[in-house]
Write a structure and sequence with these properties.
Length: 147
């Protein structure tokens, strides 16, 4: 493929869009929330302990109820997840992640529609509320929608 002036313009515009996103208030809030979580040594230790418990959970899931540690692991993972979910810093990070994802979804939709109305774009993200299918369903009917 040959690099033309049109391609250079597209690349420059994409870089400009990326710079705008990185300097946006939504991304700044995400970075702050991320730093708040990962600068707290106690919270980082809790997250690492939860990650280790997730590995044990996956191992237990292979054998199901027949695994000797099934009940202990199932209870422990729920307790640890609940503790992390109830942490204000973790909750703020998750909300900030959702806000960034929503922004990216909106921009992706706008870019796709500016190319062509026939470009398939998922209508809703997993984080948004609403129908699982819309006028932009890009799954080819795989979402079992009845549109």
């Amino acid at each position: 493929m040959m690099m033309t002036g049109e391609w250079m313009t597209i690349i420059e515009q994409a870089e400009g869009l990326a710079d705008m996103l990185l300097s946006s208030e939504v991304v700044a809030e995400y970075r702050k929330a991320y730093n708040d979580v990962y600068s707290d040594a106690v919270l980082v230790a809790e997250i690492q302990a939860f990650a280790a418990m997730k590995e044990r959970y996956e191992e237990v899931q292979r054998f199901g109820r027949y695994h000797p540690d099934y009940n202990i692991v199932m209870k422990s993972i729920r307790v640890q997840k609940r503790e992390l979910d109830m942490n204000e810093q973790v909750a703020a990070l998750r909300l900030a992640e959702n806000d960034v994802q929503y922004l990216f979804d909106q921009i992706g939709s706008i870019v796709a529609k500016s190319v062509s109305d026939t470009v398939k774009v998922p209508a809703e993200s997993a984080f948004s509320t609403g129908s699982s299918c819309g006028d932009g369903c890009g799954t080819g009917g795989g979402c079992s929608c009845s549109a």
